[in-house]
Amino acid sequence: MVQGKTIVVKVGSSLLANEERLTPRWAFMHNLLEDLARLRESGAKVILCSSGSVALGMNMIGQRPETAGLRDKQAAAACGMPLLLNAYKQVAHEYSFEIAQVLVTLRDLEDRKRFLNTKNTVDRLLDANIMPIINENDTITTEEIRVGDNDRLSAKIAQMLQADELIILTQVDGLFDKDPSEPDARLVEEVTDVSPYLAVTEGVSSLGSGGMLTKIQAAHMAQNAGCETRIAHGEYEHPVTSILNNERRHTKIFANERPESAWANWLSDRLQMAGSIVVNETTAEAFKSGRRNIGREDVLSIHGPYVKGDVIHIYGESGDELARGLTNFSSDETMALARNPTLSAMQLLGYKTLGTLITDKNMVVLDDRHLTWDLPSDEVMTEVATDVST
């Protein structure tokens, strides 16, 4: 059933760390790794996305998760990571397989070259029959430059490896049609379109950084890549195989029947907004017929700063998000080009270039399968047109 499949499994801090003592939950780790060993023996490639380092390091720095600040969490991650990996290594050896740690940052996933470098590393580990354990490098990340949750990180890994299954283990049975604490809340067993459920998926655990909202966002990212997502309670004797064998209740989010290419997925599924532009109505109307180049004459306003090679969001004057694309210029260069339409790019920038801001080959026009982002507020947008009256 699983032979030849690539399976990404995500577990959160609340399953790995005792909430009061902030120590490893050894029984859960044994159950989990025994089950993953069974999958590996059946011919599956297994990747584990694991939280837990911050929670396990709190005791060493004398803090609690509820009151810890950013510096506390960074220090706790540095203390907790060796504890977490040592625990995984001890248990994995009992089931006769090797593990390796892969720490990533936001830029490793949002920058194309670094994204591919990360993919090559993970592929090499899988080729060597070593199970990668992937986590965000919380020691060096800040609020401005972090993924922020391992749900969406696991979805990016699933996209990266073109995985067949994404399993998200949590402390509830899956997605409910309303707050699961309400007596009439019902488990949603199968989902094709995640959009209707975004409004009811709020709440964050005290130990973790994500709630059901980020899990639904992760499922959406995975389904566009042709990957099926299952969300289930982690406290079970065989936490993963029991889901794959449909032995217990959980939520299954189906893969899109027409998945996008790996390139299109990387362009369209952003973890953070690097920047954005607003284009005129003529350009916005042209997007209805498909992709097109964007030139300096098309831009009305810019939200930066961003650099060459960033993926930026493209909006119409109405505020609707139209597309996302890889920019050929920084925000400063874009503004210089847009405000000086009569001067050549060579005169303005000092190097030879055609001056096309975004080419159609490096762009994805958004449709119903994509979750759009709100246009940044007017306060952070800079208009191209300037008031020349004195």
UniProtKB/TrEMBL annotation:
<feature type="domain" description="PUA">
    <location>
        <begin position="275"/>
        <end position="338"/>
    </location>
</feature>
<dbReference type="InterPro" id="IPR001057">
    <property type="entry name" value="Glu/AcGlu_kinase"/>
</dbReference>
<dbReference type="InterPro" id="IPR036974">
    <property type="entry name" value="PUA_sf"/>
</dbReference>
<keyword id="KW-0641">Proline biosynthesis</keyword>
<keyword id="KW-0808">Transferase</keyword>
<dbReference type="InterPro" id="IPR041739">
    <property type="entry name" value="G5K_ProB"/>
</dbReference>
<feature type="binding site">
    <location>
        <begin position="209"/>
        <end position="215"/>
    </location>
    <ligand>
        <name>ATP</name>
    </ligand>
</feature>
<keyword id="KW-0547">Nucleotide-binding</keyword>
<comment type="function">
    <text>Catalyzes the transfer of a phosphate group to glutamate to form L-glutamate 5-phosphate.</text>
</comment>
<keyword id="KW-0067">ATP-binding</keyword>
<dbReference type="Pfam" id="PF01472">
    <property type="entry name" value="PUA"/>
</dbReference>
<dbReference type="InterPro" id="IPR019797">
    <property type="entry name" value="Glutamate_5-kinase_CS"/>
</dbReference>
<protein>
    <recommendedName>
        <fullName>Glutamate 5-kinase</fullName>
        <ecNumber>2.7.2.11</ecNumber>
    </recommendedName>
</protein>
<keyword id="KW-0963">Cytoplasm</keyword>
<keyword id="KW-0418">Kinase</keyword>
<dbReference type="InterPro" id="IPR002478">
    <property type="entry name" value="PUA"/>
</dbReference>
<comment type="similarity">
    <text>Belongs to the glutamate 5-kinase family.</text>
</comment>
<feature type="binding site">
    <location>
        <position position="10"/>
    </location>
    <ligand>
        <name>ATP</name>
    </ligand>
</feature>
<feature type="binding site">
    <location>
        <position position="51"/>
    </location>
    <ligand>
        <name>substrate</name>
    </ligand>
</feature>
<feature type="binding site">
    <location>
        <position position="150"/>
    </location>
    <ligand>
        <name>substrate</name>
    </ligand>
</feature>
<dbReference type="GO" id="GO:0004349">
    <property type="term" value="F:glutamate 5-kinase activity"/>
</dbReference>
<comment type="pathway">
    <text>Amino-acid biosynthesis; L-proline biosynthesis; L-glutamate 5-semialdehyde from L-glutamate: step 1/2.</text>
</comment>
<dbReference type="InterPro" id="IPR001048">
    <property type="entry name" value="Asp/Glu/Uridylate_kinase"/>
</dbReference>
<dbReference type="InterPro" id="IPR036393">
    <property type="entry name" value="AceGlu_kinase-like_sf"/>
</dbReference>
<dbReference type="InterPro" id="IPR011529">
    <property type="entry name" value="Glu_5kinase"/>
</dbReference>
<dbReference type="Pfam" id="PF00696">
    <property type="entry name" value="AA_kinase"/>
</dbReference>
<feature type="binding site">
    <location>
        <position position="138"/>
    </location>
    <ligand>
        <name>substrate</name>
    </ligand>
</feature>
<keyword id="KW-0028">Amino-acid biosynthesis</keyword>
<dbReference type="InterPro" id="IPR015947">
    <property type="entry name" value="PUA-like_sf"/>
</dbReference>
<dbReference type="InterPro" id="IPR005715">
    <property type="entry name" value="Glu_5kinase/COase_Synthase"/>
</dbReference>
<feature type="domain" description="Aspartate/glutamate/uridylate kinase">
    <location>
        <begin position="5"/>
        <end position="232"/>
    </location>
</feature>
